[in-house]
Amino acid sequence: MFKKITLALLFSISIFAQKQARIVEDFNKNWNFKLGDFPEAVTANFNVSDWRTLQLPHDWSIEGTFDKDAKTKQAQGFLPAGKGWYRKVFTVPANWKNKTVSIEFDGVFKNSEVFINGKSLGMRPNGYISFGYDLTQYLNFGKENTIAVKVDNDAQPNSRWYTGSGIYRNVRLVASEKLHVGKWGTFVTTPEVSTEKSKVHLEVTIDNDNASAKEFKLVTSIVNADNKEVANFTSTEKIGAKTSEKKVHNLEVKNPKLWNTENPYLYKVITKVYEKSKLVDNYETPLGFRYFNFDSEKGFSLNGVPTKIYGVCLHHDNGALGAVENIHAVRRKLTLMKEMGANAIRMSHNPHSLEMMQLCDEMGFIVQDEAFDVWKKKKVTNDYHKDWDAWHKQDLEDFIKRDRNHPSVMMWSIGNEIREQFDSTGIAITRELAKIVKSLDTTRPVTSALTENVIEKNFIYQSGALDLLGFNYKHEDYKDFPAKFKGQKILASESVSALETRGHYDQSDVIKAWPTKHGAPFDGNADWTVSAYDQVKSYWGATHEENWKTIKSQDFMAGTFIWTGFDYIGEPDPYPFPARSSYFGIVDLAGLPKDVYYMYQSEWSNKMVLHILPHWNWKKDQEINVWAYYNNADEVEIFLNGKSLGKKSKQNDDLHISWKVKFEPGTLKAISRKNGKVVLEKEIQTAGEASKVDLKADKTTIKNDTYDLVYVTVSMLDKDGNLVPSAMDLINFEVTGGGKLVGVDNGYQANLESFKTNSCKLFNGKCVVIIQSNGKKENIQLKATAGNGIPVSSIQIKVE
C-alpha cells in the first residue's frame, strides 16, 4: 500500500534534491576513426597515430565519392559503405566506483560491436535501434579505459534508400547509483483526459544493483511548462538485491492544458528515488495531455476536434550532412514542414532519432512511428531479413519502450509494404508483432502500410490484428473502401510519389507518368531534371493535386502522408546514374521549397498565400504556363508590364489557376482579391545579368558548443536584386572564426560534386552552405567568391 508523506518530509527531501544524482555526459568528442577492419584496436596499447580524430555523430559514407559501380547501388545514392572502427580513451572518476556506469548509443549503422578494455559487450545488427551496455564491471576507475566500436556496413546492398555508415547518432555516458530507474524505465499514460482534470498513471522500473535489499522512497512530481509543480505523489517501497521491479504511481492534474498541433503544451514527470534522505536517482519523462480517435466514418479527431492528418513521410538523412543526426538540422526540417501546414510525420521506414521525437513533441506533430521495412522476406540481398529471426522481438520491444512516452506518437506501424502481405505467413507474423506492441502499450493503434487492397490477397489484413488500416497509393480506389473494409479505420499511409526538380519548368499541359510501368522507356530530360509544375508522377503514384483532392473530399480517410516532405539521398527514380537523390520531395535536398510547397501551404495552413510560377526569363513570344496557388481570396488577376491578362478563380475542386502568356521581358504581377479588396500582391521580374551574390543566414547568432548550425542560402541576383534563375556559377566559400563548413548543396538531384567541398555550383540561381560551430568564441565570417567580375560577398554570424 502506498503512503503519502507529509509536506514537512517533502520539504526536507527537497533540501537534498539540489544536486542531480544521475550524471549524463556527452560522449561524442575525441574519438579516433579509421576506415577498414582493425580487430586489434580493442587493446589498450594500439597505435592510432594515423587515425582521424573527430566528433560524433559521424557518417563516413557522405564523405565519399559518388561511384556508378558502388556496391550500395542506385537506391543508396552510389556512395561507399564498407567497414570502419571507432576508438576512444577516457577516464572515469575514482569516486564512480560504487556507481552503475553505462553507455548509450542512439544509433550505429550497422552491425556494431562494442568493446570495453578488450571485452566485447555485444553486437547490434539493426542500424536504427537505440541501445546501451553496462560498463561497470569492466571499468578501471580513476584510470584510463579504452572503448572500441566496430561498424560493419560492408554487405551490400542492404537498403532501399541511403543509410549512411558509422556512429551517426549521439552517444552518452550515464552514471547512476546502484539503486536507480532502469533504462527506458518509465511509462506514463493518461487514462482519463479532460480540461477539468486528467489522471496520470506512471509505471517505474527500478533496478537495484546492490548486493542487498533496499527500502526507498519513490517521489513523482509533475511540472508544467513553467516548471511549476501541479501534482505529486510519494510512496515507500522495497526491492530485493540484484533485481528489477515495477512500481506504480497514480496522480491527478487539475485543469491541464491539452497538447495539440497548434499548441503542443508539454509537462514533465520527474521521478526521484531516495535512500533515507539521500537522493540517489532522478529521471525525467515527457508528458502531454491529449486524447485522439480514429473513426471509420469521420476520420481522425484530436481532443474531440475533427482533424485531418496533413502528413509527410520523412527519411532519416539530413541532406548534405548525410545520416549525421543534429538537432538543429532536424528543427530546420520540421520548421519548413510546419510552415507549410503539415501537422504529422511518418517516420519512414525505421526508428528515427531521439531528437526527431523530442522536436515532434515540442513543435506539435502527430507521429506515425514505424519499426520495419522488411520482415522475414527480403527486398534487397542483405537487408534486415537476415537478422529477423534473432532480433525482431528485441528490436521491436526496445523501439516501443524508447518512444512510448512521447505524446506526439499516435500510431505504431509494424511494417511498410511487407512482402508477407501476399502469403499466409503474414497472418502469424502480424499477430505476433501486434501482440508484442500491445504487451508494452495499449494506448495507440497498431497499423501497417499496405499496398494490396484486394482482401483475398492481403494476409496482413486477414490477420485481423491491425487497429488501423494504412494504404499506400491507389488513391482512385479510396472511394470503395467503406464498402470493402466495413467498419475499418483507414489512413493513406503513403501517397503521391510525384516528381519535381526545383526551378525547372517544362512547358506542357499533359500529366505524365515517368515511366508508365516498371522498366518502360520514357521521354525524360537530357539534364536529368523533371518539371516543377505538378504534372509528372511515378507510375504507381499520383500528382500532388490528384491525391489531395481525393483525400480532401473523403471524410472517412483520416488523412494522408505525402511521399515525401524532403528529397532524400538515394532512390532517384525515374533516372539512372548520375541521378543520386530523389525527386519526390516537396522541398529539395538542400531545404529549398519547390513550387508545390505553396499549394500545400494554401490548403493546409492559415497563412495568406499567393504564389506564382515560373520565373520570368524566357524567349521572346514563347508561350508560358503561368500558375498561381492562392487562398483566402475569390480571384487572382495577373498583369504583364501593367496590362491585365484577366481574372481567374478556382472552379469546383481546383487547387490552382493558370494562364497561357506570351513572354515579353518585364514585370509579371499577380493580385489576389476577396470581395473586391486586395489580399496580396506578388511580382516576378525578368532578371538581368548576374551582379551580386546574396547571402541569407537562417539565424544571426550561433552557440559555440561545436554542434550548433547555421544554414546560409546563397542566391545570384541582378543589379536590381532579382534572382537570376539560370545562374549556375561556381561559388567558392571561405569560413573563418568560430565556425567550419560542414556541407554544401544546390538541390540538383544529379549533382555528383561532394557535399563536403568548399565550393558549390548554383543550381537555378541558388545553393545552401551549412556552417557548424567549431567551439571558438569568435564571430564567424563567410565569404563567397563567384569570379567573373562579381564582387566578393560576405556575411557575419555572431557567436554566443
UniProtKB/TrEMBL annotation:
Glycosyl hydrolases family 2 sugar binding domain boundaries: 25-174
Keywords: Glycosidase, Hydrolase, Signal
DUF4982 domain: residues covered: 622-679
Pfam family, one: DUF4982
InterPro entries cross-referenced by the UniProt entry: Beta-gal/glucu_dom_sf, DUF4982, Galactose-bd-like_sf, GH, GH2_Domain-Containing, Glyco_hydro2_dom5, Glyco_hydro_2, Glyco_hydro_2_AS
Superkingdom: Bacteria
Stretches assigned to the Glycoside hydrolase family domain: 694-787
All residue ranges annotated as the Glycoside hydrolase family 2 immunoglobulin-like beta-sandwich domain in the record: 187-290
PROSITE patterns, alphabetized: GLYCOSYL_HYDROL_F2_2
Domain annotation Glycoside hydrolase family 2 catalytic: ranges: 298-449
Membership in a protein family: Belongs to the glycosyl hydrolase 2 family.
Protein's UniProt name: Sugar-binding domain-containing protein
Originating organism: Flavobacterium artemisiae
